[in-house]
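Q: My labmate handed me this sequence with no annotations at all. I'd like to see what the chain might look like in three dimensions before we decide whether it's worth expressing. Could you predict it?
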Amino acid sequence: MSTKISAQMVNELRKATGAGLLDCKKALEESAGNVDEASTILRKKGAASAAKKADRDTKEGLIESYIHVGGKVGVLIEVNCETDFVARNDDFKAFVKDLCLQIAAASPTCVTREEVPEEDLNKEREIATAQSEGKPPVAVQKIVAGKLEKYYSTVVLLDQPFVKNPDTTIKAMITEKITSIGENIQVRRFSRFQLGA
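A: Here is what I predict for the chain of 197 residues:
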């Protein structure tokens, strides 16, 4: 016996996930009315959808600034999307503001892992290896890999937990935004300024 999917259930799932009505209805039908499972289904489809859009050109977007209270920290960021229509959208503008806030609060040094200088990674590997001295080689490898992951989450913007919701990373947040807006989004670059630094 199939579960009856009400319009209210679909609407609530839509509000919670930002997905389209039809997608919400299909996910609820697929999960037999289980809202948590339907949300997971939508997130998986959203990640797949975002991956398909990753190769699209992003020639529009915004350059946004943020000056923290007291004027001691400032951020300048460029976030690109596919169309000017999306760049002027209030939802997109709020998203870019959140990214500025993230950079001001969490002090990342680069956007992606590929941008982390090799010399910095080597230095972190040396420190982690020295801290694991005397342990078996297999354990040392795991410890070093774990410490590098932690290092990435401090210096790489996309790997950082979002300051307003630490349960989600910036990369996951961007993926959700790509899904809800329907366009590829890329953080092109940013600069963080701190008085005296």
